[in-house]
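> forwarded from #structure-qc
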């Protein structure tokens, strides 16, 4: 049964003679059920739609301009939230104007915008952008030097797409697939077929089966394929199951990111595979929110709120201090106890 899809995309283009432009988008699409919270009922559909736009110096990777937009958010301002909403933390990201997307950027980003200070969805998106943009710069500069031309202003020459899909296999197991694709294109030569714009298509796929109650990874596999215009029909998938075998039988929450960084400590050519795995845990958190039926059944059997179980990952919406809206002492975090046991009358 389909549960949830998370989609992230990052597109890069030349904005001017001195600046390049990158836009990142994140969308969460819940495909099943609804989630009760202390303030509302959150049905299936688009839960989050957010984007970050950057203009940056491709030589220094210095961020010259930054803009954030959040068309769809999980929590809008209301009386129940005392006027707070998911858009409130976003201005903190503007503080990174003038910063550089270097190797330590994600650490600075996490310290400034992680946990109770920020929005976990914008954080995930910006982290992926910080890893993607330097890669896009390197491969485009290499292509431009090799072929002796530059991409036209405003023409997207690089796109990274990531999809996290969750399916309920049976009562005890969830299948999660993560797909990452880097598509790099060149300026189209006159009279050539459009397909020849393809410089490379580099795909990475991860498939994990997760034991639902304990969040343990029962099985996991990973593969990559890189194609060019000349190898569209001949390139084959390469398995990386041996590299990621230590992740099997370990929990997906908590601690997956730390284990992934230990396996891919040096980054290098497998950095996109590392980036693929880093989307597994945050995507899984969104997926399990579509599995509330058992929770409702258990709560209906509970005689009081004290006996009622907690949801599998989040207590009716979010763990304390997981983001700004669910920080300690926030309006919705304080009021969640008013939800009480399900009224069976």
């Amino acid at each position: 049964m389909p549960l949830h899809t998370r989609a992230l995309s990052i597109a890069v283009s030349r904005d001017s003679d001195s600046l390049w432009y990158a836009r990142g988008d994140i969308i969460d699409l819940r495909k099943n059920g609804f989630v009760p919270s202390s303030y509302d009922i959150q049905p299936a559909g688009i839960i989050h739609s957010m984007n970050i736009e950057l203009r940056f110096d491709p030589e220094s990777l210095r961020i010259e301009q930054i803009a954030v937009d959040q068309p769809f958010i999980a929590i809008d301002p209301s009386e129940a939230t005392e006027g707070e909403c998911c858009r409130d933390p976003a201005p903190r990201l503007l503080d990174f104007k003038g910063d550089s997307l270097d190797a330590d950027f994600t650490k600075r980003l996490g310290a400034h915008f992680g946990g109770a200070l920020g929005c976990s969805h914008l954080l995930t998106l910006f982290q992926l952008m910080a890893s993607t943009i330097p890669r896009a710069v390197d491969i485009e500069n290499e292509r431009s030097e090799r072929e002796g031309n530059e991409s036209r202003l405003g023409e997207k020459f690089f796109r990274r797409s990531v999809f996290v899909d969750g399916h309920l296999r049976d009562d005890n197991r969830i299948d999660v697939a993560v797909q990452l694709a880097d598509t790099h294109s060149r300026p189209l030569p006159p009279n050539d077929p459009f397909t020849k714009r393809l410089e490379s298509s580099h795909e990475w796929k991860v498939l994990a089966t997760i034991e639902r109650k304990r969040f343990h990874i029962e099985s996991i596999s990973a593969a990559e394929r890189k194609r060019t215009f000349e190898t569209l029909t001949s390139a084959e998938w390469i398995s990386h199951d041996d590299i990621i075998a230590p992740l099997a039988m370990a929990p997906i929450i908590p601690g997956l990111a730390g284990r992934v960084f230990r396996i891919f400590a040096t980054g290098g050519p497998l950095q996109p595979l590392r980036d693929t795995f880093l989307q597994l845990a945050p995507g899984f958190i969104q997926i399990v929110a579509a599995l509330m039926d058992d929770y409702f059944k258990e709560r209906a059997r509970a005689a009081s709120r004290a006996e009622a179980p907690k949801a599998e990952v989040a207590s009716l919406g979010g763990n304390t201090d997981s983001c700004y809206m669910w920080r300690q002492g926030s309006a919705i975090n304080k009021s969640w106890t008013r939800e009480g046991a399900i009224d069976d009358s």
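QC bot note: The CA atoms of residues 110 and 123 lie 7 Å apart. The chain has a mean pLDDT of 88.
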